[in-house]
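Below is one protein, fold included:
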Amino acid sequence: METAESFHNPLVILNPTANRGHMAHYRSLLQERLARETGEYVETTRQGEARERAMQAALEGRPVIIVGGDGSMHEAANGILASGRRVPLGIVAAGSGNDFAWNTLKLPHDPAAAIERAFAGQIVAADAGKMNDCYFVNSFSIGLDADIAVAAGALKKYPLMSGERLYYSATLRQLLFGYHRCPWLSFQLDGANPQAETQKRYVLMAITNGPTYGAGFRINPKAAYSDGLFDVCTINYTPLMRALRLLPIVQRGEHEALPEVTFYRTRHVIVESRFSVNIQMDGETQSAARFEATILPSALLVRI
């Protein structure tokens, strides 16, 4: 059986386009750290490469350290989970959201401190989720928030658009111009249907392992990454002006008592939509009309 001491020769994967391409400081710090111990350093050149490299490293029993944003972290975690091997994942957050690193795992914002944790931090087990044929570690959601993730991707090309400013701007844009696309959904939790209606219109449905997404929106404030359960928040459709008033309340995580909001905990969820809708997983987007997600307790080893 592998122990924490048996993991060596990590693969360090850096996304050179993270942090708007300003990665020189991260490179310098990594070179200093790698000069003190054995490890392999690579930079990605295309989408999907981090997943492939992380999978190969995991199959070889090697730890993986990912340096980049939520998309890079999502790829690296998918590679490890798809390998069937449990090797540590170190995360150096260098993106515009960083919810899993900063708000779920409470990793340092300072690059030097984050790199030290990624190499030598305590190894803990974290839950993951599998949605259809893909894995996620922090969040999977449907509705306005997924549309916001799509809009945020489009806004990233503009100067000064990052972090909370990026996601807040994308949120306002979708509320004002895309709110009419809020989906009709039906869902089952652990095989039971919690709804009286066959389908109902929702602003969003968020299934998470961590408390936040979208650069700090506290959608499931009580979520814990190692409790073996998804936390689920649904927000019923409400008129646009009401939704605009709810936005800052949801951002602060103070929405538990709102009449439009319901929280659940579950191990398995099936969601169906009338039409194909956007979803986001750890900030990465796709679309479909049916989704099935299952919790994978303690599936991922991470350094904190």
